Amino acid sequence: MAGRMLEGRTVVVTGGGRGIGRAHCLELARHGATVVVNDLGVGLGGDSVGESPAEEVVAVIEKRGGRAVADSTSVADWEGTGRLIARVVQEFGRLDGVVNNAGILRDGMITKLREEDLDQVLAVHLKGTFALTHHACAHWRSIAKNGASVTGRIVNTTSGTGLAGNVGQAAYGAAKAGIANLTLTTGMEMARYGVTANAVSPVAATRMTAGSVFKEHGADTPPDGWDPLAPENCSPVVAWLLSEQSGWLTGAVLRVEGGTVSRTRPWTVLDGHASADGRRLTAEEIDEGLRKAFGVFPGGIPSLTAR
Ligand SMILES: NC(=O)c1ccc[n+]([C@@H]2O[C@H](COP(=O)([O-])OP(=O)(O)OC[C@H]3O[C@@H](n4cnc5c(N)ncnc54)[C@H](O)[C@@H]3O)[C@@H](O)[C@H]2O)c1
Questions:
Q1: Which residues have any ligand 1 atom within 6 Å of their CB?
Q2: Is beta strand 34-38 parallel, antiparallel or unpaired with respect to 10-14?
């Protein structure tokens, strides 16, 4: 049926109670998916605030005639995420996709971030994504080995910071870069079992970006209602990635900005310098060779030289 790309499929969306994840849940339910809305209901920095946004999203989906259940497992809980996947399989008889979207923000320069900030950011973003991916993929591998036909889908969430770096986001960027790489490896390892893994890099005005430059952009919403920074803009991409139709794409990181979806290129070997006879280069040869190869003239690049 047109507009129902996920009929009969059951998917988990982490951090589905707010912002981008909430938009995903509503869009996936509109496409006919049964949605497991996971959200711990924490504050922006991961602190407990006693909210239950997952239940609110489930209520909206049900009011619109869709099917959803709430879950409040922390994605950073390895055993808890294992129980979540087992619960989904037991309750709905199937698992078709996981959207790893939950996230927190603890910004700060590398000189200021505390061990606890690093631990929390890595735990929610990188370990959380890894944990659910591990448990979901183990399930799909085991049923594929028993002869079942699998069209499992992992959709991860990275960010511009994870792909290109950003001042003040050392921990967050490291976690998001790890997620991008995890996507590649998961895609490679799981292809043989009918499972794809892709990632999105969204741009949206949510509480996570409030106060940043995005807020000003959001205020420029044209009169026709189209907001290039609406959290909903990324959700159709996620719906498609979860569908059977997207089975030809794996290991991709898709940048989604407004109405544009673009493929990104992973770390790639570019130009360099090699010794003429294949032996190890000396530091002096490297200095001269790289300056020549990278087009750096005596005096260096002003912005990179120490002040
Ligand atoms: N907003 C943007 O422009 C932007 C850009 C790039 C990437 N992202 C990423 O998109 C995702 C969603 O961001 P958002 O802007 O909607 O943020 P948000 O703060 O509005 O939503 C994040 C949700 O994750 C939940 N959460 C946090 N820790 C959790 C845990 N341990 N277990 C389960 N749920 C947990 C929170 O309760 C919250 O509802 C994040 O991964 C973020 O890093 C956002």
A1: 14-15, 17-21, 38-42, 44, 46, 53, 74-76, 101-104, 124, 128, 157, 159, 202-204, 206-209
A2: parallel
In a mutational test of the pocket of ligand 1, which residue from 26, 42, 44, 48 has the highest number of ligand atoms less than 8 Å from its CB?
42
pLDDT in tens, 21-67: 999 999 999 999 999 999 999 999 999 999 999 999 999 999 999 99
Q: From the alpha carbon of 51, which atom of ligand 1 is closest? A: 37
| Mutation choice for ligand 1 from 12, 99, 208, 264, CB with most ligand atoms inside 8 A | 208
Domain 10-263: state its class: alpha beta
Q: DSSP H helical segments within 113-211, as ranges?
A: 115-121, 128-145, 160-164, 170-190
Q: What is the pLDDT of residues 4-20, one digit of tens each?
A: 999 999 999 999 999 99
Which pTM was predicted? 0.94
Of 101, 18, 91, residue with least CA distance to 57: 18
- Taking the centre of ligand 1 as the mean of its atom positions, its distance from the CA of residue 65, in whole angstroms, is 26
Amino acid symbol at 51: E
Task: Give distance in angstroms: CA of 206 to centre of ligand 1.
Answer: 9
- Where do the domains of the chain lie? 10-263, 270-307
C-alpha closest to that of 204 among 190, 189, 215: 215
